[in-house]
User: What shape does this take?
Amino acid sequence: MSPSPLVLLTTEGTYPFAPGGVTSWAQELLKRLRARFIVFALWGPQQIPKIPSLPRNVEKVMVVRLFSQESFPLTLARQPLLLEKLESLFGFLEGDLVAFGEGLYGLAKASGKASSLSGVFLSKEADEILRRRFTSVLGRTPVLAERLLTLGQLRGMLVNLLQIPPVADIAHTTVNGLGAIPAWLASRHYQIPLVLTEHGVYLRERYFALFALNLPPALSLFFSLFFKNLARLIYHEASLCTSVSEFNRYWQIELGAKPEKTMVIPNGIDPAKFPPAPRHLENPPTAVWVGRIDPLKDLLTLVQAFAFVHKALPHARLRLFGPVPQGNEVYAQEVRKRVEELGLGKTVTFEGPISPVYRAYHTGWATVLSSVSEGFPYVVLESLAVGRPVVGTRTGAVSEIIADSGRVVPPSNPEALGEALTELLSDPRLCLDLGALGRERVIRKYTLENMVESYQKVYNTLCESGQRQRDELP
Amino acid sequence: MSSRGLFRSAEEPIRNDEKPEDSLLALYRKTRDLCTSAIDPYEIAVHLEAIGYNRYRVQKEFGLEGVFQLAEKLYALVPRDFPPVPRGIPPLQTARQLATRYLVVLSTFSAILLFHLRGGGMGWPVAIWLLAWGQMGYFLVYRAEAELAPPRTAEAKTSIALLGLGVATVLSFMSSNPWDTFSGSVFWVGAIRAFWDGRVRTVVLSAIAALLGAYLGLERISLFSAGLLSMGKFLVRSCWNGWQWLFHSWPRALYPLLYGLGQGLFLYGALHRLSFEILWQIMVFLVAWLFLFDFALHRFGIALNRSLWDNTSFATLFSRMRSVLLLCIAILLLPLAVSLGLCFLSFSAYAPFFLSGFWAVITGSGVFLFSLGEQKRPAMVLFVAGTTIAIFEPLAILAGVVAMGISLSCLFLKLRQPLGYGLWFL
Assistant: This one.
């Protein structure tokens, strides 16, 4: 066995291109682990951003474009083998994971030989298969438009993705969605261990997205079945499912992961990068929010909550630090409008991105997180690391991280959030004490060192067991 | 009616007049929209968590094991159907809207033509730029309306208009008759800017004012004023946000820009030696033909939409659309047929007509392909052909024939696949 294993790390819309929790995690982890990496990154049709400098042990970055605008095939050659595999892939409609897996693997293997998977997805025969298989699930025959949309979406997702990735010792996926498919294919093809690390539960976020997209109901049904069974397949076949919180682990087990194959490895940060905030608090009492402006962060509830704070503490301030990602402009405007409507124009300020980020936490008495969905938010860790308490919503790992160093309230509940913020912002002593507890807790439990050590153990153990399995094969 | 699908088992539906007797029904009332639209119990579970239910609260309030069990209970309360919901095509323009659009184009076009006939004249480089900018602008405005919210949409539109005007101004003052060209450009950009906002009355009034002014011999001032009038207050409503958006978005409109440039260069190569008397006849014929063709495409869209949302097969889809498609193709080839007829009468005099027949077929195929989501090929074909014809005049007929052949073959290949164009329309 090679002393430093070669790991195929798959990502989806995150590392190494987009900033965020997964990218921070991967950046810190990759450069510290004793392993070599091939990064297999899934990206959408939008322009690929410039790749930032990568750790030396990243040997290659392979990018797969989903929904890329390729031309439609010019011929409609019938390919019985591919159609047979496509039929098998539709097994997910009835929850048949074996057939589903066979379909995915068969198409990936065959795509190396046949030139046009694309043509198969958009063929008359594929339409016939879909019509037959989906009718029994939908309770009626799907109309042509629904079938076209379904086949088109499926094609956009899978055509470029279904290929056997390069050989590696371990396949490690950072997501249990489309990004898990290449890792699973590598694991099956080369008989190597498959590790899954979930930051947020992909399926949960998929449900939020399906709800927001307001797709035709038949499509929502089709794709919810697809993603649910994909998640089940990966949970079932992964050698180890790690997650960043007990909350995620609860979902993993519900969806079919064996409890003994699950493990919580919390994220960690380098405390040296987060110097402690001053041991005194300057007036006015200030709450700080850090993140990207996004509906999942539920800033409307936060603003509403701050109206309650404003009534009790008219001089209190709320400072919002973070960018407005492309596509969220309307939401950002809605938030600003709500601020104006509530007469908080001088109290709530939009500060934009800040670097280094610890400066944002230093300006406040406490940090607030109002999200309706979270995985393992770095914001909470970072704020506690500088010694500022957090008022957060009970989502993902938030309550696990905050524990007794802040306040946890139900999501989408402005009254409760406002009450907790008022409590902290009216008592500077309490803020300092909770903050000190938080810093001590982060240094003890959530360090980068602990995280890296845990993953190194996982890799070493899996490499040994994988090698044993391969040795035992005839 | 309840769905009979395997996945859709449901107990008796909750009646509206039923009173909540226990906490489950109370929760159902609170989350009715979610419960009726959810396609899976997990979807309900996710949203329950988002409103503050966790396993401890569920155990305490409902005596159930956790959120998943609660979601299943709620899911089972409502029967579900999945009726097909038509979407996508409905915002198709009505025949009246199409007619209005062409009335606007014709009135603006007539004002400029009259201006030319009265002795003015717009330099070809500016005319080509305005044609290309018009194509790019139409596409960018469509993107802006999809991506931005008011007032940023208006800012983006004004920035696009000012870009067009800026380049046209520079080119105008490099041409032989700068003031004529400049005032014509202001009028054209102003009319298009008003058209983007659907201010049809403003455009028609401006065009009439411009026509009257031109008739009275005040071409420059009337076109300039009519342009400013059309632009109105929007002339000053550009801001940094609009320019930023334009800076990031213009590469996405590259193919429409090339398409417009190709059209302009093609027409220049074919027609620049003609007198205005013949030129305006050709132009009016081509605009009228484009109107007809757009109308046929409109019918094609409606036929396609109906077939897609019926319970049809591929074969039915084909047969239902065949007649509409044949009509489209016939109209597409009409200008070529006319030019061929004229060519038989006198080839040397009517070579420009012959070339405009090619232009029409290539442009029409491009419009068709654009409406089916294909941009790259028609844009490249027209751009390459236009450049060739503008630079190498002796090759004009050959280039026209080759480009027309490529355009038609691209179109027919696309039309062979209903899945392809069906998807785009959706």
Notes: Residues 57 and 66 of chain B are 8 Å apart (CA to CA). The radius of gyration of chain B is 28 Å.
